[in-house]
Structure formats: C-alpha cells, structure tokens
C-alpha cells in the first residue's frame, strides 16, 4: 500500500512540476508566419507561398521581419489598404526603425517610411479591416512605375508583446502584404497576400513532451512496484 501511494505521489509531483515549468518558462523568442492566402489581381498561378513574417520579442519590443520570396516586391496598389504591410494592434504603440531592403541592402525611399498603430479600420481588399500599418510617407514613391524594388521590410513596435500584434481580424486574417508577384509560377499579379497559421513554438512542444515523458516513467515505475508486491 505504501509503495502504491508513493507511486501516485511521484506521478502527481512530476505533473505539477511540468505545469509549473510551462507556466514560468520564458516564451519562445520568435514566431514565424507564412504568407499563403492570395488575393492578387489576375490570379496566383501555381504559387502557394509568397514569403514569411517573423516577429521576435526583444525585451519590451517586437521586431518584424517581412521577407518576400525571390522575385516578389512590395508595392502600394491601394488594394492593400494603401500600405505596404498591415496588421492589428488595439493598443497604441510606437512603430520605429522602419527600413526597406533589397537582397539585404537598404533601399532609400523618397519621403521615407511611416508606421502607425491603433488607427481607424483600414480595409485591404478581400482580407478585411486592420488597425496598424507601415506605408510610404509619400504615397507616389511606392506605387506605379516609380516603385523602388523592395523585397524585405523591417520595423520595431515599441512597448509591445507578440500576443498584442497577432490578433486576427473579423475575416480571420492576421497580416497582409501588398505585393507585385514575380516569383516562379506567378504571372505578375498585384495585391494583398495574407498569413496562414503560425509555426508551432518549439519551446512549448518541448515542455509538453517532457511532461508526458515524466508521467509515463512514473506510471511504469509505479506499475512495476505493484507487480513486485503482488508476487
């Protein structure tokens, strides 16, 4: 009887320890999303993925790295809410350190880039309303034939957590990039592409696996001891 109770106690201790570790562990430092949903004019060809959006928690700030697949570039067509990139933020934060790059090299944009959060709903065609955006300060610098070649967009949202910036809108969309699609399989369509479900967080998966393994080991020890007592 003592050994049986001891086995149960060990099982409960392992479970509680696992829950405590999951509750107090530092969250995964980065979440990556895939731009897969297509609302391009003229169709999407054979393309099923257009780029990625990575959010990284750096202290009290969140950095965004929006990276388009080779051949694609950002453009303000108007269909993307008159912005290069839109997302949701119901609390006012400051958007800073905005830069556009082409193959890793900074691109200079006439008039510069701006960002704002907790704004009036901004509609991106086919993807719904969003409350935050990064856009060209001078719109004419980023639309039509004058558009510079930009394949990556980087910026920081100050005083925010990743969870503050990953809320889906009423249409179920989280992020939207306004692009010209010239990657292999795409016929030069323009317009919004939006995000799919996030990549699972490896830290969380590891914690769950550790707890399950501990519970299994405790159960096997308890069963083995009960068997020995019964002989």
Account of the protein in words:
The structure is a single chain. The protein has helices at residues 2-24, 202-230; strands at residues 30-38, 51-58, 61-68, 73-74, 85-87, 94-102, 105-106, 113-116, 122-124, 128-130, 132-136, 152-158, 176-180, 190-195. With 231 residues, the chain is an alpha+beta fold. The model is unreliable at 1-6, 8-28 and 199-212 (pLDDT under 50). Helix 1 (2-24) runs antiparallel to helix 2 (202-230). Helices cover 23% and strands 32% of the residues. It contains 2 helices and 14 strands. Strands 1, 2, 3, 4, 5, 6, 7, 8, 11, 12, 13 and 14 form a 12-stranded antiparallel β-sheet that branches. Strands 9-10 form a two-stranded antiparallel sheet. The protein has 2 domains: 2-22 and 205-230, no CATH class; 29-200, no CATH class.
Task: Give a quick set of tags describing it.
231 residues, disordered N terminus, 14 strands, alpha+beta, 2 helices, globular
What's the layout of helices and strands?
Layout: H1 2-24, E1 30-38, E2 51-58, E3 61-68, E4 73-74, E5 85-87, E6 94-102, E7 105-106, E8 113-116, E9 122-124, E10 128-130, E11 132-136, E12 152-158, E13 176-180, E14 190-195, H2 202-230
Antiparallel strand pairs: 1-2, 1-14, 2-3, 3-12, 4-13, 5-11, 5-13, 6-7, 6-12, 8-11, 9-10, 13-14
Helix pairs in contact: 1-2
